[in-house]
Design a protein that fits this description.
The chain has helices at about 5-20, 25-45, 45-55, 60-70, 75-100, 105-130, 140-155, 155-185. By secondary structure, it is an all-alpha fold. The longest helix is centred in the last third of the chain and has 31 residues, at about 155-185.
Length: about 190
């Protein structure tokens, strides 16, 4: 399903929220607090429930931006708040995952490396935008990362661990793709 089709499916929900006076920042802040729940569930090895809630709560990230655009409440500062809180949410979720693997050195390393390069994808995009160049290239945007982790969680901790290997490859490739994309643009 493409992003435009997903937005059209969510339009009734966004309209409902707008009619109730819900602001985009309400959804953004709620998303941060709600992300604590899957983070804790991961820490206690409750991967199935954590994955379901991660997928459910990640809808708030889609809804906040769509609500901002629909109600003409977009702003540069709102964008900063949204992307900053996205990193906080991602950090909370990964903290739970990393903690759950704390007694398994290889898994701990892979989980931490996944966290690191997941953050680097967003960081390199932000750095490029600081120079006037935006890149969204690569297979693992934030939405795809959350979907991947949420779906992988549905199979339990052991299978989740094995899915981290292709995950880290995909996020590393996304990181490299963006890095080279920005390097190429800054040469000209």
């Amino acid at each position: 399903m493409n992003k435009e089709r997903a937005k059209n499916i969510l339009n009734p929900v966004v309209n409902f929220l707008a009619r109730r006076g819900i602001k985009p920042n309400h959804l953004t802040i709620s998303g941060v607090f709600l992300s604590i729940i899957p983070g804790i569930l991961y820490a206690f090895n409750l991967y199935l429930i954590a994955g379901i809630l991660l997928l459910l709560f990640s809808l708030l990230d889609t809804l906040d931006g769509q609500l901002a655009r629909m109600t003409s409440q977009t702003s540069n500062f709102g964008g900063v708040i949204d992307s900053t809180f996205d990193r906080v949410q991602e950090g909370i979720v990964f903290a739970g995952i990393i903690y759950s693997f704390s007694k398994e050195p290889l898994a701990l390393f892979i989980a931490f490396a996944s966290f690191l390069f997941s953050f680097m994808i967003s960081y390199i995009r932000a750095r490029g935008e600081g120079y006037g160049f935006s890149t969204r290239k690569g297979p693992m945007e934030r939405t795809e990362r959350i979907l991947y982790l949420g779906i992988a969680s549905l199979f339990g901790k052991k299978i989740f661990f094995y899915t981290l290997f292709p995950f880290i490859i995909l996020i590393f490739l996304t990181f490299l793709r963006r890095l080279f994309d920005i390097k190429k643009s800054l040469k000209s």
